[in-house]
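Re: that chain you flagged

S.,

Sorry for the slow reply, it's been a week of failed gels. I finally had a moment to sit down with the sequence you sent. For the record, here it is as I used it:
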Amino acid sequence: MYVLFQYYTIIPGELPGCLHQMILLNPAKTNMSSKEYHLSQLKTIKEFLFISKKSAEQLEMMNINAPLFHLIASYFYEFDPHSSWGMTDFIVTTLDKLNNQDAVYDISVLLYSFDNGCRGLSVHEDSAVRIASILDIIENVLLQLDGYDVVVWNTVLSLAQFLLEYVHDTIGISYGAWFESIFMKIQSVAETKKLQESFMNLFIDIIPYELPSILQIHAKVVHQKSSLNHASQLIRALKNIHPLLHYPSRSPM
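Prediction finished late last night. Pasting the structure tokens below so you have them in one place:
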């Protein structure tokens, strides 16, 4: 895989094709549907990056793979303003293409590469403008999505989680504050009640595939900022799956 990518570094215009071929060479060994696999993979990656205590072997593997992830991230606009490719858009386009495939494919290389790029931003004091630009890109992608596909939606939200996990102190914005802002904007552009309900159903669909800490953030915002019945349904669904979590009331945030 690394040799294949190195070949395409000689021909920069072939980067998207290179990454697509890398993914197609790595089909997942699973009986799950594409939707279940990608949502489960997202949760597993976030647990590994943000929660799990790493073994010595895992840390060694992270160090071995880090140069490849850094190289991939460095070819995209989010992490190199001179690039003409957006990594957020590329990930969304890749997911759309893979939905039409018979097999299920592993896109973890893209997610780990995005995370690697975000880690790099966190160590530079002059990264605030770059970080704000990435959040704008993620927000624009969410606002322009054609429909509410749960895999694409949760993947793009996860990109914001990767970024803000490392840089929230740098820019003074938590994931909760950012999510509240984007939630209100998306509700305002969903012009019909049917679209709003479709949007709200996303939060119920991702409950089994999301970290409890993120579910609490989503529940607080959805419950307090939406008047739809789906907000109450979300809290009931969460209680069934995570009964020990603390859930919000309608009191001010």
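What I noticed first: Residues 150-171 form the longest helix (22 residues).

Talk soon,
D.
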